[in-house]
Amino acid sequence: MRATPSAGRAVTALVILALCGAGSASAAVDASAQEAVPPLTAASSAARQVLDRVRPAIIQVKGFFGTNTSEAFHGTGFAAAPGGIFVTNWHVVSDAVLYPEKYRLEYKTSAGGTGSLNVLAIDVRHDLALVEAVGFAPPPLELSAEAKKGERAYSVGFPLDVGLTITEGVNNGRVEDSFEPRIHYSGALNSGMSGGPGLDGAGRVIGVNVAVNFQSQLVAFFVPAEFAIALLSSSTSKPLDAKHVNEEIAGQLRAHSEALLAALDSPLPSQNDQGYELPAKPAGFFVCGAGGDPAPDQPIQIERFYCDANSTLYVASDIRSGGLWFRHSVLHSTTLDSWRFAQRLQALSTLPSGKIGSGRSRQLAPYACKQDDVTLDGLQVNAIVCLRAYRRFEGLYDLNLHIVSKNAPRRGFVSTLSLTGVSSEAALAFAKVYLAAIRWKP
Amino acid sequence: METIIVIDALGAHDRVLSRHRIERPGAVATCTIGRGAAADVVLDDPHIAAVHVRVAVDAGGKATITDLNSVNGIEIDGRRLHGVVDMPLGDGVFRIGRTKLRLRTAAENIPAEVSDQKLSPSEARARDFRWLAIGLAVTIAGEVYSIWAATIQTRELPTKMLTTLFALAAIFGVWIAFWALVSRIAFGESRWLRHAAIFFCIVAAIDIGPLLLDTASGALGIYLPSSAAMLVAGILIATALAVHLLNASTMRPRIAIAIGVLIPAIALGLIQWRSTYTQNRSATYIPDRNRIVPPALMLRGGEPLQKFVLDLDELKERADAKRAFVLTEDPSPDDDSSDE
Description:
The complex is a heterodimer of chains A (442) and B (340).
Chain A: H1 3-34, H2 46-54, E1 58-65, E2 71-81, E3 85-88, H3 90-98, E4 103-109, E5 114-123, E6 128-133, E7 152-157, E8 165-174, E9 183-186, E10 197-200, E11 205-212, E12 220-224, H4 225-234, H5 245-262, E13 270-273, E14 276-279, E15 287-292, E16 301-308, E17 313-316, E18 319-321, E19 324-332, H6 338-349, E20 368-376, E21 379-389, E22 397-405, E23 411-422, H7 424-436, E24 439-440
Antiparallel strand pairs in A: 1-2, 1-4, 2-3, 3-6, 4-5, 5-6, 7-8, 7-10, 8-9, 9-12, 10-11, 11-12, 13-14, 14-24, 15-16, 16-19, 17-18, 19-23, 20-21, 21-22, 22-23
Chain B: E1 2-10, E2 16-25, E3 29-34, E4 41-42, E5 53-57, E6 63-67, E7 74-76, E8 79-81, E9 87-88, E10 93-96, E11 99-105, H1 121-150, H2 157-187, H3 192-220, H4 226-248, H5 253-279, E12 303-304, H6 305-310, H7 314-329
Parallel strand pairs in B: 3-4
Antiparallel strand pairs in B: 1-2, 1-11, 3-5, 5-6, 6-9, 7-8, 7-10, 10-11
Helix pairs in contact in B: 1-2, 1-3, 2-3, 2-4, 3-4, 4-5
């Protein structure tokens, strides 16, 4: 609901820009009819210098399905250590790591040389991977954990398979209120550049291209270089142990969720709405919002509140994990009878065709649930607590909690919590914390 | 002593179109049947000869029938006979031309007299009407209630109710018409009133039953699985089918009840099996059995949080068991993208 007005503004802004562009183009045509415009003499060469400097250390990472010679996916990598050790994104190589019998990885250098790639180490949490290029060992790029906000920055990669490209932008420093640290790069980043280096003006790697916000303009993100440095220092030169890769990923996801839960305020902050104390923004990095129908003559007033940790990690093309969100709908009525109010609360709380959230049966086992009426500090609610295991990652679970109040004739709430990629102990412990944060304080 | 032969010409549903009684002195009697005036029993069927057959009844009351060289012969038990043959008759039914006839003699066995406890047609109509009125009233009340309960804007009620009632009337009309047609084929009478009464009484039960079940479930805090609602629906549908069949066909009660029970049992059983099969493999299915009623109706309080969360620890074991189940039973499911 909140997105709608801003989406409208975005469209308006685009239209205005397009009109401005058309206007200036016609002005240029008029001018050229009279006399030629002299060429610029002092064009910036910084980007060219940076590109020339890093070009030998950049590879295109290509994935092939089966015996196909046409690629299934591609990204970018850069030399980060001697001996042909390259850094790229986990999401570039994840399918090849998870399905080694289906995919093979190859590299292509900026000079056109090709060879095979082995994955050495992965960091799912920070979306990084180390790969070894067989038969190609250029001098590595310098990694710098220092990145100053406001300085010029560059990003290099192979966007859309159109060849090696550099984009110029501004390093806007660490993203404030983000659970996993990210550098905000105000420059262009496109599909295929993932895993390429984010560079400062001196050609040092300050981060790794990772993501872009497609609904905005030039809002792109680097994984800070410190995580690539940490991955380099902790890894060995042996290829990833294919037998234990699932355990490795499960362990990293659990570590992510544990850190996420540890970062929440304790006790869980709450806010009072219509007498119900309900969990509110649990930490600074959560994105929370609220809204409702402003029409005054509705028989039932509904206020909606949501909080999302924006902590979801890319695990594979068909699975995301590590997220935490919750939302509440608080209802009240002054005019409706309690019977129809109960019916409406029932309709609002009943899960659409018995579902909560998303998930694919290919990756996740069915939910095991417990449902009962519970008294929370004198407040009667009905609670469903559900836990589902990951098929591939043993010891990793998703938690869903669905709570609906049953205490008042014309007031009520529905609250839903989703926590993904956690250990069962952490999941159930957090379910208790969440339930305990709900109270009736009229 | 005299011998009596009765010959009935039968129409649809074995109704007697004409009855011919022939009395002959003595212990043995014969008579002829044909289209011509010379025959003892005259029938207006162009497929019958002037004198088509001769019927004879002997001293023991046993009847035989002889074809008198007709073109079309005699049809007995589906077999067509020609020439001069003597044919003993079983139930007395035979066909000449296109006319079905029944031969009766004094030696026939007739069923015992039925005691007059059954209702007269007008009494039966009054009874059907009473049940129809009750069923219809409760059905309309149930529908009006469910629309009222689901509509919070009072100004929308009249249009919603009218559209729903018209739509239901159309569906009901088709259903009742179907059974009336079946009755007409079986008995030659439509029995509109009775089928409407059966139908509306069952619909009333389907309207009211789940409402009572839900309300009781919410009030008592006992949450039934969806299969319970399915079972109740199954029983009601089975009852409806069986009663419709008993009133619309000549089949024996035991068979009508068996069919009435079997059809919904198989259909609902398959649906239930299929949904259980899917639910046991779905990564997003969550059974929600909660029923909300106004707090004033609630008879049971919730269990303390401490007790509820104590029991949560077994969730891990159940989640692991479900994982083990799908890993063996459904190792490579179809790719289902189920996003919100």
